[in-house]
Amino acid sequence: MIHIGLDFDDTLIDTRKSIVRVLNKQLNRNIMFDEVTIYEISELYGQTFEEFKGFFISNQDELHKIEPYPFIKETISRLADKVKFTIMTGRPVEWMDSLKKWVKENNLKVESSLCASQFENGKLECAKLNDVSLFIEDHPTHALSLADGGVNVLLIDKPYNQECQHQRITRVKDWTEVGKIIDAFADKM
Ligand SMILES: [Mg+2]
Questions:
Q1: Rounded to the nearest whole angstrom, what is the distance from the C-alpha of residue 9 to the centroid of ligand 1?
Q2: Is the pLDDT of residue 34 over 90?
Q3: Partners of 3 in beta bridges
Q4: How far does residue 88's CA lie from ligand 1's centre (Å)?
Q5: Ligand 1: distance of its center to the CA of 139 in Å?
Q6: Residues facing residue 89 across a β-bridge
Q7: Does the keyword Nucleotide-binding apply (predicted)?
Q8: Cβ(151)–Cβ(124) below 8 Å
Q9: 16: CA distance to ligand 1 center in Å?
Q10: How far, in Å, is the centroid of ligand 1 from the Cα of 144?
Q11: Domains along the chain?
Q12: From its phi and psi, is residue 119 left (phi > 0), alpha (psi between -120 and 50) or beta?
């Protein structure tokens, strides 16, 4: 059975959109999500990463009140007999409970959820130790590290990853495209 690694934030759930919504409300700002092209949203609000981490921890329930991106549930369920899916997130460990709660509430059929940031070499080490042959990711740094380490990546197209290119990285628009590629990949195995 093929093992596919899944990034969590901004691959399964539009966390950035949620963060902008909640920060705008709390700080009385009016930043338009569509105009956000930098990766570190906290910088737009003048927050340090430590402040942002605190904000995230105290607002976890509110931040996760958001559905999975379209076609994720269908794709994962449809491929269940061919593919094992495991979430491998770069989140800090303190944010894992809210991730697991969201996965459960949304009834996503994934094998388990691992905190890849706990591994010394992050997602690559986590993916290699678990025999992952394909990874779905949005973050350019993680995508490149996985690709350099020999793991194929489907990169979800985002404004902040436009420069990211590698022979093992395939750019995809959305989860319908992900589904088609995994079907073809699974048939070859
Ligand atoms: Mg991500």
A1: 4
A2: no
A3: 84
A4: 10
A5: 5
A6: 115
A7: no
A8: yes
A9: 9
A10: 13
A11: 2-13+68-188 (3.40.50.1000), 15-63 (no CATH)
A12: beta
